[in-house]
Recover the amino acids of this structure.
């Protein structure tokens, strides 16, 4: 069953990236991996359920990549900024842009409510709590700060994905994200 799910997710990921959700044919997708529509419905309920699984997979990969970049920064504060920056920059990647940032919200609704976003939020809360314990941040509610940081990164990525000039928007978004986040520091730096 897990192998079937994996095949369908991979085929859908390719189809959604190339054609978009609306134009991806479920018959073509299932035939490409030697499965039937019945397998799709059994595993995901419908096309929307399959999109949710693809978005969860890509969003999880994005979070892992951003976290690895943040961990490589060596410092908790630099890591927090690097993680946000990495997430925002991923909005330039065609697959992320189309599936996660354009089709995902249009079909699945508010990305801040997706299960994958909750795990990102929990990781950000933990980072903010550590920075607070070190005295590096102004006294602030950790969950509130984490939600605002994650929301800023997500909305910046959505803005970039929807833009006709994503590279120009990226530069503006990254600078604004840095300025907003820096406002949390107990001492400017």
């Amino acid at each position: 069953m897990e192998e079937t799910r994996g095949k369908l997710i991979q085929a859908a990921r390719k189809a959604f990236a190339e054609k978009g959700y609306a134009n991806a044919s479920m018959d073509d997708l299932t035939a490409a991996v030697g499965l039937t529509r019945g397998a799709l419905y059994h595993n995901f309920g419908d096309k929307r359920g399959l999109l949710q699984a693809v978005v969860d997979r890509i969003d999880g990969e994005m979070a892992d990549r951003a976290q690895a970049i943040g961990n490589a920064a060596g410092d908790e504060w630099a890591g927090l900024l690097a993680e946000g920056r990495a997430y925002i920059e991923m909005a330039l990647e065609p697959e992320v842009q189309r599936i996660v940032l354009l089709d995902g919200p249009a079909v699945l609704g508010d990305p801040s409510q997706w299960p994958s976003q909750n795990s990102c939020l929990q990781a950000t809360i933990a980072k903010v709590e550590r920075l607070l314990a070190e005295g590096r941040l102004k006294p602030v509610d950790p969950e509130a700060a984490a939600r605002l940081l994650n929301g800023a990164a997500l909305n910046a990525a959505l803005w970039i994905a929807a833009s006709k000039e994503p590279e120009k928007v990226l530069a503006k978004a990254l600078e604004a994200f840095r300025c907003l986040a820096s406002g949390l520091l107990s001492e400017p730096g």
